[in-house]
Amino acid sequence: MPEPKATNITWHEGTIDREARFKRLGQRGCTVWFTGLSGSGKSTVAVAVEQALHDLGRHAYRLDGDNVRHGLNANLGFSAEDRDENIRRIGEVARLFADSGLITLCSFVSPYRDARDRVRKLHEEAGLAFFECFVDIPLKVAQERDPKGLYAKAAAGEIADMTGMSESSPFEPPENPEIRLPTHEQSVEKSAGDVVETLKAKSVI
Q: What is the pLDDT of residue 54?
């Protein structure tokens, strides 16, 4: 975590603690971090999980990779440095959301293991649950799906350093994710169900 540039700042505590918020919502705040190649199904599954939780009367909110680049992270590109800063900012937002009692669903390519591990550590240091969810499909399948046309653009030379397609821009898969979703082998409904069942097993809901 970078040191704040601002000086003379103080953290102000409130009168409502975390346990009171969790009790009011009837759930424990946490972050589910969907990582995987572009086209793996991260956003699709996150949407299905959010709907399933809503149907169960639970409170969840999605933070999607493209969505946050329209606002909060609009000033960031796709260099290694900007990717790291993108994940750092979202990690901080996810921690705040989880602390408020929300089940926060983050869907980001987040290709670098160190960046994801820093988000995990941020949550662990705050005493908040963090579940890494690897949406695991072969690169060939992602290229065939290509819902945004990014792989086609990369093949045409319009996008440099497409994640997973070059040594300079690798995707570093999780080593021990809490959840693994092979979305090329199972339905969206099954994948969303696997996430919800994990949250039940871990007493989040």
A: 98
Whether 191 is catalytic: no
Encode pLDDT of 21-47 as tens digits.
999 999 999 999 999 999 999 999 999
In-domain check, residue 13: no
Structural domain count, the chain: 1
Residue 113 resides in a domain: yes
Please check whether residue 121 is in contact with residue 33, taking contact to mean a CB–CB distance below 8 angstroms: no
Cβ–Cβ < 8 Å for 178, 135: no
Residue 5: exposed, middle, or buried by beta-carbon count in 10 A (0-12, 13-18, 19+)?
A: exposed
pLDDT in tens, 96-140: 999 999 999 999 999 999 999 999 999 999 999 999 999 999 999
- The size of the chain, in residues, is 205
CATH classification of the domain holding 175: 3.40.50.300
Residue numbers of the domain that contains 125: 19-201
Q: Is residue 163 part of a domain?
A: yes
**Is residue 7 assigned to a domain?**
no
Selected catalytic residue, list 40, 43, 110, 169: 110
Q: Is the pLDDT of residue 2 over 70?
A: no
